[in-house]
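This part of the workshop introduces the protein records we will be handling. To make this concrete, we reproduce a full record directly below.
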Amino acid sequence: MPPAPNATATVTHSAAGDVRAADSIPERLVRAAVHLFAQKGFENTSVQEIVDAVGVTKGAMYHYFASKDDLLYEIYARLLRAQTARLESIASSDAPTAERLHAMAVDVVQTTLANLQDVTIFVRSLHLLSDERLAAVREARRKYAARFRDLIEEGQREGTFRRGGMPLDLRTYHFFGAIHYLPVWYRPDGPRSADEIASYYADDLLNSLR
């Protein structure tokens, strides 16, 4: 089975595939926001504290981000963009359907755990997003999960996966629900490594389809 892409890859790829320099102002602002939100919480962190940590003016920040809300959104959106690009790369490969689905499942768990602080901050503060930003996140998640369902349906058509059983929408909600719960209990110094957990989750998904 081909290995999943390296889970520690940068998540600063833009939707167009460009890569921002690690010391670019937008990336520095996001990193500072992650650090401060983790320390103080989203609501207790001011824009002034973020720009002071980076050493830029508020005007410089507002050139890239219209508000603190936009920074919170970008913390998660940049990870989701990178995960989506990797998902498409795996899904469009020539590997057998079961191998592609397994690699996709491994990758989403590995990248979530590799960026656990970002995910934790976002999950805790998700309810503070504007309705527009929240709708954008939900739509991006819907499209991501739909790619899994498409591949499962492909496997059903070719006879790799059985038909019937739990409806596919519930099957994917079940899988991603378990992933969204990872920040609650996972610890890097725990008894199981990120790779082990990713493999268990992927194996469980495929076993449920056979």
The radius of gyration is 18 Å. Confidence is low (pLDDT under 50) at residues 1-22. The first helix runs from residue 25 to 40. Residues 25-207 form a domain with the Tetracycline Repressor; domain 2 fold (CATH 1.10.357.10).
